[in-house]
Amino acid sequence: MIKELTCICCPMGCSLKAEVNEKGEVVSVKGNNCVRGENYAKTELTAPVRIVTTTVIARSGEPVPVKTEKAVAKDKIFDVVNNIKSVKIDLPVKMGDVIIENVSDTGVNVVSTRSVE
Q: What is the mean pLDDT of the chain?
């Protein structure tokens, strides 16, 4: 079976065609201009992941932009966002500060992406 994807690893947006066998394994990937496209197709078709970006509201009402340090399983995104939205923090926050450790038992930390006084 052939699956068609658009790579999201860079602005080129390569059109990928991945051949998947009956076991759900990616056999080959075509259309990628670099190895990142091949890796993206294999991951997207077997265990998709995403970086989560959102905001945390400080107790003062100021929004603080945050993101996961690494990609998390796509099926955990809503749980991760709900955990992030339930947090209230105190300012100041520096860029890179850990806001939540091991969010939703993913092994991934949520960090601030901007310093907010």
A: 96
